[in-house]
Design brief:
Helix content is 29%, strand content 36%. It has helices at residues 28-35, 51-64, 116-130, 146-154, 183-192, and strands at residues 2-5, 11-14, 18-22, 72-79, 85-95, 100-107, 136-141, 158-169, 172-182. The protein has a nine-stranded mixed β-sheet, sandwiched between helices. Strand 6 (100-107), helix 3 and strand 7 (136-141) form a beta-alpha-beta unit. Helix 1 (28-35) packs across helix 2. The protein starts with a strand and ends with a helix.
Length: 194
């Protein structure tokens, strides 16, 4: 994973097959393609999105690019070989005093089961620990979303427990599984994989 700034000073994180980059208004159609798919948003707190929902989301993402210091990174997941936006992801500093942040990701259904979620999550974790100097990164997922739980376990996160009815989403209380990884655990994991 490498990090670079694009010519217009927007963030871009390179992986083997992907470019994670800041969103812009030109991404509206691709974002709406996955955010309005009932199967894609089934386990999300948000969705089914209207085009206006997605336009507002992209506006907020663009505004966060000007934060000083920047705490929120909502990024598009694009294929390097075609430059096609296939999903969205993010890393957010939720507790800067304690150097804690969280990650999330969402892919167009056409690109599931190809390893893109794992590649994305790995890149976000590396960015969080290397660039943002976080100590702890966490993620949550719906207990029924076994595919997402598998991705989080695959990148070295540990399940810390179940948060019972902690979110009101889609007109119901929702449980979440809480996963996390610490900076020294991530360094040790990467050292053992070399």
């Amino acid at each position: 994973m490498s990090r670079r700034k694009t010519c217009d000073n927007r963030l871009a994180i390179n992986t083997e097959r992907l470019l994670l980059r800041d969103l812009s208004v030109k991404d509206l159609r691709a974002v709406h393609e996955y955010s309005s798919d009932p199967e894609v948003v089934r386990y999300m707190d948000w969705g089914l999105n209207t085009e206006e929902d997605d336009r507002n989301f992209i506006r907020l993402a663009a505004a966060s690019q000007h934060e000083k210091p920047r705490k929120h990174y909502s990024l598009g997941i694009t294929l390097k070989d075609t430059n096609k936006l296939i999903g969205g992801c993010g890393i957010h500093e939720s507790n800067p005093d304690n150097r804690e942040g969280w990650i999330g990701y969402c892919l167009n259904r056409e690109y599931w089961r190809k390893g893109y979620a794992t590649e994305t999550a790995n890149a976000l974790i590396a960015f969080g620990f290397k660039r943002l100097r976080l100590h702890r990164i966490f993620a949550t997922c719906d207990p029924a979303n076994t595919a997402s739980a598998h991705v989080l376990e695959k990148i070295g996160m540990q399940c810390e427990g179940r948060l019972r009815q902690h979110k009101w989403a889609k007109r119901r209380w929702r449980d979440s599984l809480l996963y996390a990884i610490l900076d020294h655990e991530w360094k040790q994991l990467n050292a053992s994989q070399k």
